[in-house]
Please model this.
Amino acid sequence: MEKSKELIKKWNELIGLQDDSLKKELTDLEISTLSACIGDCYESFNEVYFELFDKLETASTDDHELVHDCVVDIYWQFNHIKNHIEAAEKGFTVLMEILAEKAESKPDINHT
Model:
């Protein structure tokens, strides 16, 4: 949980640094969607890989109810991630363009 909070904080700092540029092309809702995407997807990812897969690994092969419930939950979490990514697609695109523009305009100090 602590790692999730740290990740969300870093992500929001990154977005905050680009706030003026983002606001030129995105609505407040689109920026909020972009901001929420990372934390929510991270939590869903953790649930799948560190909880549900553990349950499946230790489940009896004939415990069809538990296996079914895990598969349904895995599908739901992956669908949740997909929906967040789709909802934040415009925000990601704009953020990538802003960062690419800044990277291209910065002098290359490694090659003199």
